[in-house]
Amino acid sequence: MDADFTKRSCEEFVEVLASAAPVPGGGGGSALVGALGMALGNMVGSLTVGKPKFADVEADIIELKAQSDALQRRLIDLVAEDAKSFEPLSKAYGLPKETEAEKAHKAEVMESCLREACGVPLAIMQACCEAIDIHEQFADKGTPIAISDVGVGVKLCQAALQGASLNVFINTQSMTDRAYAAQTDAEANGMLEVYVAKAETIFANVAQRFK
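-> structure tokens emitted (211 positions)
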């Protein structure tokens, strides 16, 4: 299967995800889950646009849908980008380290590859944070007939956010530049601190409507 797993069927994606193949993995899976979550929020917007009852928020919903379209595309693209960023790292692990020169070379290559491998899951996290913000507005302005989909969508985005964070942390713990690792961890933890709570609040508010 080529690196752009998003061009294959859902069944093929799940099969290769379950296999011993190095990619896709948790990062790509998180990006896809985030795209699915954003699509559910976007669907609520689609069901709201054009309804006379929501004419006063139609312009807002149209703008939210445009933002959702862009986020869906970005997260889908990040599935493939995650696979591409992991390939150099997987090769770096196999570099020889018999001599001091080989050890130094491997350490240098590993550090560079670890930074690159952190970049994509951080981007996935950032996209999921944006998606959670958009879900909050869909919950407030979208049609109530599809409010459950906002709840499902925001939970998927929360899961994707937390899942992608693990792909950051597993790479930063192997970095020799501990200052850079700490800075990257702080960025990821900052997103988790704000947006996990926000997603849970949105979900709880949706769930409360059914009680």
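The chain is about 80% helix and 0% strand.
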